[in-house]
Specification:
311 residues; UDP-N-acetylmuramoyl-L-alanine:D-glutamate ligase; four-stranded mixed β-sheet; 10 helices; globular
Length: 311
Amino acid sequence: MTRLPETTSVICFGEVLWDIMPTGPNPGGAPMNVAYHLQQMGVKAHLLSRVGEDVAGDILLNTLKSWGLSTALCEADAAYPTSEVHARVGENHEVTYEIVYPVAWDFISYNTEAASLLRRADAFVFGSLATRNQTSRETLFRLLEESAFNVFDVNLRAPHYSPAVIRQLLHKTNLLKLNQQELELLTDWFGGGITSEAARIGLLHEQFGIGEIIVTRGSKGASYFIPGKRLDCAALPVEVADTVGSGDAFLAAFLAKKLQNESAETALAYAAALGALVTSKHGACPPYTTSELDTLLAGKEKLPVPAIKSA
């Protein structure tokens, strides 16, 4: 696989945390997952976040460093702890999550070093969860003015979002990634009475000026939209270990190939392949090599070649 030039870099903003699972704690957070997979794909990823001045924060940062991630922009907080998300398994194996509040990443501050690096970066990745507290929200909106290419991974987690803030973020977005349920929810907020997917996508293009939109559908694949064009890509059939972080891997692979100036068709195929590869392993950030991805892509009968349609 072709490696990206050293100058290619992406800043991922938002939550880093410990997922407290019944089987034990795992590093987590969508921005962290995207950064990990970007790094695996050859893109220099910088994580802009905040952890507590505690043992949990020290272990988390050391883990990220062992993965090759830059933590220079991860602040330390003396007042608030490193974030935890508690998973609870109920009847019929249903899992619910408690995202503890407030925690260190709710207080990410604006600093000139991060802003300077962002102005030189190729992309800025963020989600909605980091807007739940005023401090991190205000920092995010300041940074969105510094970035040349803003990538919004919607990632709604109730009750930590509001339509008003989502609207503001959409106006700052160049590339939008969301799932089918989020697409319907957002366009119901801002359109009303829309039933067709084409009309929902058209609303986001026209009302917010978003140039590129990715809609993920799990085992049913994904679609990529620009005004007047749509690409559909099937999911690769793999034996599922778990689906944690597969959407983050999908976004990272798409963005990496886009920054490598590959076609949208190629970027979408790589995204589907990496999403499948991660799904076949346990955890959001499993160890793997790019040769594993190449091997998966080399199976031509399994490669989900995107179909081009008129939007």
